[in-house]
Amino acid sequence: MLAILAACANAVSSVLQRKANLGLPAEDSLSLRLIQALFGRPVWYLGVLGVTAGFLLQAAALSVGELSVVEPILVFELPLTLILASWVFRAPLHRREWSSVAGMTVGLAVMLFCLAPSGGNAQSVDWVVWLVGVGVNVAVVAAAVLWGRTGKVAERPELGGRRAVCFGVAAGCQFGLTAALMKGAVAQGGRGVAAVCTSWQLYAMVVSGIAGMFFLQSAMHAGRLLAAQPGLTLSDPLVSVLWGVVAFHEEVRQGWWLLPAIAGAAAITICVAVLARSPLLGDEERLPPRARRSAVRR
């Protein structure tokens, strides 16, 4: 329930940030000019408040549940975002969107039931594992950002879509690292509040979360959200599950259980790809006329 509430908070934040991001030039992606422009839009602050609430709910969920369970549930941020956006922008969802939401629900239920993640101990992870894991995670993020920055959008406008994809993947991977650090911090709760406040994971989580937000804002401005959203939605839980299984030694079912689990994951991937093509995630010009008028209001 805490993970579902976190997904709801993130969905509210996504819609509010989308309204704040409309009309800003894509050339400002991955620059401080973008943040300065957003500072002048009050709706952006509400979006940040939603992200903060989502982080707190996610931390509460991770304090009582495994990383491999909590993070895949957050994939529901995408359909929840579409449902909320359909209400805010007055653009109804169609059979394709509702079918994809149902498919994601079934796929996630099958995957979690078949894997049945359990156990794990984030409190006693060796520092070498942390060092290697963080290093690999940061390297993947850096590679995605560098690939996205290749070429000049002003000279080749088609690169905007690739940048959105790359920055979206970078943001998702960064948020996956943030979740792992969050799990490491809340795992210190057994030793008292002082142990949590003095853990290095807590402060590394704050830095990682800020970096993830920066990449997310850049992805929104580099191109259409329909390009950025799939990579963002899928890379976050994938990285988190890898952290849970490899670093925190969370156990999952083996053998034939993996076949339906993979099928469930494939269903989620397909449904995310379908939902990401919804007009509600496209440019302002692709929205229905009534939604377009609502979107331009500040």
UniProtKB/TrEMBL annotation:
UniProt xrefs under InterPro entries: EmrE-like
Record's keyword terms, sorted: Membrane, Transmembrane, Transmembrane helix
Transmembrane segments: 43-63, 69-89, 101-121, 127-148, 160-182, 202-220, 232-249, 255-276
Ranges in a coiled coil: none
Protein name stated in the entry: DMT family transporter
Lineage: Bacteria, Bacillati, Actinomycetota, Actinomycetes, Kitasatosporales
